[in-house]
Design brief:
Keywords: ATP-binding, Nucleotide-binding, Plastid. This is Rubisco expression protein. The protein has helices spanning about 10-15, 20-30, 35-55, 80-90, 105-110, 115-125, 150-165, 175-185, 185-190, 205-215, 225-235, 245-265, 275, 280-285, 290-295, 310, 325-335; strands at about 70, 100-105, 130-135, 170-175, 195-200, 220, 280. By secondary structure, the chain is of the alpha/beta class. The protein has two domains: about 10-200, Rossmann fold (3-Layer(aba) Sandwich), CATH 3.40.50; about 205-335, Helicase, Ruva Protein, domain 3 (Orthogonal Bundle). A five-stranded parallel sheet has the order 2-3-4-1-5, sandwiched between helices. Strands 6-7 form a two-stranded parallel ribbon. Helix 2 (about 20-30) runs antiparallel to helix 3 (about 35-55) and helix 10 (about 205-215) crosses helix 12. The chain is globular and about 70 Å long. It starts with 10 loop residues before the first helix and ends with a helix.
Length: about 350
């Protein structure tokens, strides 16, 4: 037996080999905020990395549980983190392929007897060697429906989680409270999930940073006043149901780019660099959401805008614009005054 007591290993070199810094940096670059999530991923990476080093010293191999639970609202980065996790696990040698397969109840559960097993098996075979992310996993469990076959899919997942845990990682994702009920319904499932990670909602500052990043990636930029209106848009949008964090911000950014294109095509005879990249207040304030917002925010109408027109509007917004000229004027006045 080789004595490894005095053996020394260069950790910096091993980190390069396993691409630890590269993968964690990619996660940090892709996602704004989520510090608690990034910390948990770093901790999981650390124990896996140390396990590899221990093996090099001749110590026994310890295979830690890797199945996970991601809970939180939509658009909080769960799929992105799952993808980076699959990459990390492949680099460390815990997965052979390191790909990500996303699935939902419809991909696993059939409507008729005898069809659920082949559907579930097909998804599992496709995910083998990587990570299987099951979104809204609690929909697999429907206790009040005797003819539902979700329990059959769950039983198959349990078998694979135990028997194939060296080459397949399952991640169950969904809203926090329904996921708690889901795990209580099946203690065997809960006991096999080693890491429960909660994804917090993005705050206002993080959402505007996400928007800026998305605009920058598409080579657009918000003007100073457009940024102020964007923040107001976020305040309104977050009060409505089905707000999906970064996913909703992505949709807002896309619509603003569409409005810029429409505006430039309609009003500009000569294209300039600024006309093609500058997102102005008009590109945001034309949203119907601002009409709803006027019911939420107390607006003060002006008696005479002719003297102070530049104060109430942003240069570039045409006062003759119709049919929502008053909405533009009064909404913009509200933004400036508040």
């Amino acid at each position: 037996m080789i004595d490894t007591t005095n053996q020394k290993i260069d950790i910096r070199e091993l980190k390069k080999i396993y691409k630890i810094k590269e993968s964690l940096s990619k996660l940090d670059d892709e996602l704004i905020g989520l510090d608690s999530v990034k910390q948990r991923i770093t901790e999981i990476t650390a124990i896996l990395f140390i396990d590899k080093i221990r093996q090099d010293f001749g110590l026994s191999k310890y295979y830690p549980g890797l199945h996970m639970s991601f809970t939180g609202s939509p658009g909080t980065g769960k799929s992105t983190v799952a993808s980076r996790m699959s990459e990390l696990l492949q680099n460390l040698g815990y997965l052979t392929r390191g790909h990500l397969v996303a699935a939902s109840r419809d991909d696993l559960v059939a409507q008729f007897v005898g069809q659920t097993a082949p559907k579930t098996r097909e998804v599992l075979d496709k995910a083998m060697g990587g990570v299987l992310l099951i979104d809204e996993a609690y929909y697999l469990y429907k206790p009040n429906n005797e003819k539902d076959y979700g329990s059959e899919a769950i039983e198959m997942l349990l078998q694979v989680m135990e028997n194939n845990r060296t080459d397949l990682v399952l991640i169950f994702a969904g809203y926090s409270e329904p996921m708690k009920t889901f795990y209580k319904s099946n203690p065997g499932l809960s006991s096999r999930v080693a890491h429960h990670i909660d994804f917090p909602d993005y705050n206002r500052s993080e959402l505007i940073l996400i928007a800026k990043k998305l605009f920058q990636e598409r080579q657009y930029r918000m003007t100073f006043y457009a940024e102020e209106i964007f923040l107001r848009y976020l305040d309104l949008r977050r009060q409505l149901p089905l707000f999906a964090n970064a996913r909703s911000v992505k949709n807002i950014v896309s619509r603003a780019c569409f409005r810029l294109a429409s505006r430039v095509m309609r009003q500009t005879d000569v294209f300039t660099y600024k006309s093609l990249v500058d997102i102005t207040p008009r590109d945001l304030i034309l949203s119907t959401l601002f009409a709803k917002g006027m019911k939420i925010y107390k607006l003060t109408k002006t008696k005479d805008t002719s003297d102070n027109l530049s104060y109430y509007t942003y240069p570039g917004i045409n006062n003759s614009f119709s049919p929502n000229t008053n909405h533009v004027m009064f909404a913009w006045k509200n933004f400036v005054k508040n």
